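Rotation project, supervised by the postdoc (A.L.). Task for the rotation student: set up a whole-complex structure prediction and record inputs and outputs verbatim in this book. Inputs entered:
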Amino acid sequence: MTSNKIKARISYDEIMCSVASREIKDGEIVFVGQGNPILAALLALKAGKRLTLVMEGGVIGFSPYRPPIHIADMSAMVGADCCCEMVDMFGMFLMSGRIDVGFLGTSQIDKYGNLNTTFSRDPKKSFRGRIAGSGGANEIAGYTNRLIILLRHGKFLEKLFYRTSPGWLEGGTSRQDAGLPGGPAAVISLDGVFRFEEDTKELYLDSIFPGKTVQEIKQKVPWDLKVNPDLKVEKLPTYDEILMIRKFSPNISLGRVRWALTQADELRRITNISLEARKKYETIESQSISRMKKD
Amino acid sequence: MTEAEIQNKLMPMKEAIAKFVHDGNTLGIGACANNIPYSAVHEIIRAKKRNLHAVQPTSMFEIDMMAAAGCLREVSFSWSIRIISGLRGIDWATRDFGIKVNDYSNYSCALALMAGAYHMPFLPCAESIYLSDINNWAGAGIFARIQNPFHNEKNKDVTLVKAINPDVAIVHVQRVDKNGNAQAWGALGTARHTAMASKRVIVSAEEIVDEEVIRRSPNETIIPSFYVDAVVHEPWAAHPTEVLGYYDFDRISVMLYLSACSTITLFEKWANEWVYGVESREEYITYYIHKFGFNALNRLKAKKYPMSATYNLGSTYQTEMEKLNLKLKDIELNPEMVEMELDCFKSEEE
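Outputs recorded:
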């Protein structure tokens, strides 16, 4: 077998997307939000898996032409199979247990996969405490069969300040006892993939990304993190995958700062073009006015 | 409803807000992330309405704007956009103006509005609410826990969410007729339930169309006319969010707002330019063109219109008389009939 190796610079965000895409199986219904989950789903689609993508604003069976910015993005609504109301989306489709995979981001996560996206610190002490809020996260975490948590900026904490979305609750059978179906299946950070133990439901490190060390990851976790005895190193994404991610969502590859700069460029470009257009328009207008005056 | 009242439904946004939104009202914003009635929100800020209670599951910047402008006393919502660095209006406004914030999840907030729309006192919501701090931290009168009356086992308790009935709802749709039959397409969010739950409804629309157009696709009507109190013809009313088939999300306007909402001085500078500085939505768009040029606005316009597939709304148009092949004199032969003297319509007399 001849191997065609290409040297390329890739980001851990791109590795995260490609690893997340492998979590999705053929024929599944996937609840996606904006950002990395949609890229993961698109990579899975590209790999030949037949998926139904679902979005909480009320869009079913869509394939966007650009990364959606929010939960009812125009790019997703164009050419979707079904558009409905939010209460239908949650009440009928999610709570019926038909959604196979759900994706969520978070800012804090504990040992048992419970999430906090509402308060980062005590709102009574600091007015900076409030973050995004629950949105649909509470029910998505509660009712999808397999929840995959993408941890881009989030922190591991021994105890959450506020539990927005239930994971495995207090571990063990506590989630089943409380009557919730499914549960978190994996946590994918920019360092590696974490999974939950069968019986205790405690988080353990299952595999790491190339270039990362266990020591480094353990420092980010406040409790004594368990590590899979046969720890794997995740495969790098293929060149085609990288190309697809970059074409579809350049901001993932560019990074936040450079992305902001391109936005500023866009503004400058538009205003410059418009300045020219306005000048042109004004000259045409002044000419026509002078012509009218002559008549 | 009298003829005059139907005629009076068409009005500019200024009049609609002055007439139907009063200080202290509960305001339902019938949109989730798209079709957001910014024109109405800006008008509420301009009209200096105070002590409002805003209800909306997923808010982009509208609750943030109203909070920063000092219009709100209470907020019931589940999500608002997060800025990685810097503060939002809602952050400093809750501290400075003492706004009470009620946290919901999207589903429970949508259910509260649905309960309001169906005139139920409450609805059972997802069990995941009870297992989270949304329930534990919520103030009194939002969630409650009762025993399921149909199951006597202990672990069959249900969590209820109290209905919300706003005083006035603001909704933006694609098209409406002058009577107020509002049609929208795309993801609908909570527009329908918010409108139905409210005592008053203000509808703004991209287009005002004939009743004939509405009747050609009655399934797209999300709010029937008798719910609607004010109809406002307001193109670009949802800018900077999108309206399917009309225009796209405007990142530049959003960035302008996000960079301005972190302090009160910056917010006021922004508001003086984009809200207080203009009189109406028309002036807002004119100012946008003046500032960024025609191209900036044109690039947002929906380019291709993949028109919806047409479907037959026809019938056989056969009346019962035609079906049974009857003449008027055939019916008159019924022996059970009693002869009486009747007044005829004038037209038939002639």
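Student's summary: Residues 3-118+164-298 of chain B form a domain with the Glutaconate Coenzyme A-transferase fold (CATH 3.40.1080.10).
Supervisor addendum: The mean pLDDT of chain B is 90.
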